[in-house]
Design a protein that fits this description.
- The protein has helices at 4-8, 36-49, 55-73, 75-89, 107-117, 123-129, 146-161, 179-182, 185-204, 309-312, and strands at residues 12-14, 22-24, 29-31, 131-132, 139-142, 176-178, 215-224, 231-234, 240-252, 255-260, 271-273, 279-284, 287-291, 294-307, 325-327.
- Helix 5 (107-117) crosses helix 9.
- The termini are far apart.
- The protein is globular.
- A seven-stranded antiparallel β-sheet has the order 4-5-12-9-14-7-6. It has a four-stranded antiparallel β-sheet with strand order 8-13-10-11, with no helix packed on it.
- The chain has 350 residues and is α+β, with helices and mostly antiparallel strands.
- The chain is built from ten helices and 15 strands.
Amino acid sequence: MTNETDRRSRFYTCSCFTTDNIFLEDYKLHVRFVSEQQFRLDYQSLLQSRGCVTEQQFADALTKISQEVDRRRRICETSAERTAAIKQTYRPLHPHVYRLQESYLAPKLQQIVEYCRSSGACKEGLVELLEDVGALRVYRLPVFEKRFCEELVEELEHFERSSAPKGRPNTMNNYGILLNELGFDEGFITPLRERYLQPLTSLLYPDCGGRCLDSHKAFVVKYDLNEDLELSYHYDNAEVTLNVSLGKSFTDGNLFFGDMRQVPVSETECTEVEHRVTEGLLHRGQHMHGALPISCGQRWNLIIWMRASQERNNLCPMCNRRPSLVEGDGFADGFTDYTCPHQNGSCALT
């Protein structure tokens, strides 16, 4: 008989994954696609206002959507194929970076985590140890030692140059690496989340599932003058996000934060936040944000979308509906088939 622990260890995707939040780069627009008729009714006027004025341009947009829908439908199969090929053919440059060691972490992060584990820890005390960046409930913290960042980027560049197959992180980033396919999940990202990040998120974001994070999606993105320069305004498929600047050397490319996704853009003022190598930014996944263009150099960022099934089982953050579950591999999109009473309501707007 299946016990509750076994049930909760199986993760799923919401069926909206194949239809919702498809990003059209040419028009900086996220769309939902169920049928051509629905798409025309919902988006044709908006697309025309953004420059999609001819039937050929509209047909090109439909083609890109069709390709993305097909990619999403086959994502489990293609990811498994890439993972197997990488394991068989790729030889790491720095094998040691695949397993988390305390020596990789900034000493101040370890001190912050110790405080969070202490009996008198509270949100107010933790916030005093973090840097206020001016955006609501966005916090800067030291994460890694510089030497580790350098070795991790060297490893990622080595993988990039290899003949091993590579998948794109998401629809908005064309250049980057899915860390689960490369083998980072079990020995690095999971212990980082469980031992070092959740003590912080439990105090900072209890209303967003910060106490019960049980899965993640981790990837790196790369910004370069000849590749992706910037990242459009968006929210994450996460309850809490950690964004760490790994290097290398770059100018500009600040992040900017608006408001929670439920707040109209017309009522939003954005705050710019500087990226600093070795440091990370913690924020709520539903907090709208983007990245300004870099003007020179190259930047690598580690992104960890941390997820709480207790939150998302009640309401999918991407389609804003109760999730319809579809089987997935690994952590999938963080849903489980276990539903408990929703304690805290949706993630607070303040």
